Amino acid sequence: METTNYVIAEEIAIEDFKNFYKSFIRKPIKDEEQFKDEFFAPIEAIKLGNLIFEDSKPVLTLEKPVKNTEGGTALGEVKFKTRVPVMTMKNLQHGLTMPNDQFELSIRLIAYLIDQPAAMLDKIENFDLEVITKLTAVFL
Questions:
Q1: Which residue ranges make up each domain of the chain?
Q2: Of 15, 44, 46, 54, which is least packed with CB atoms within 10 Å of its CB?
Q3: 37-46 average pLDDT score
Q4: In what order do the strands lie in the sheet with 73-79?
Q5: What is the pTM (predicted TM-score) of this model?
């Protein structure tokens, strides 16, 4: 059985994520357990030392970096944008029909917020992608 080497205590990781969350969402956290379950992946990434906050902006070191065809690292770290300006949102929605294209809009928004092409999302490992999607949900 594999053991996980955490570098941050769970209580500190939860508090760090709560502070980050509260800086974007002003609605109070009513159920602590539900909050921990909902944001398990980002909290886990903090505990592992893979997710930090620089000037209230998340920086995620991928647990499994995306490799290029030569075996080098194509993507090892994701720095997040924390808002989508109105005109950018308009451009991202261009050509889409709501609600039919809601999933496509989600993909475009996530790609925009991590400053990567949408095709890169296919190459990101599941846990890292879950951390990314949970974080981007806070900004939208």
A1: 10-139
A2: 54
A3: 98
A4: 51-54, 57-67, 73-79
A5: 0.91
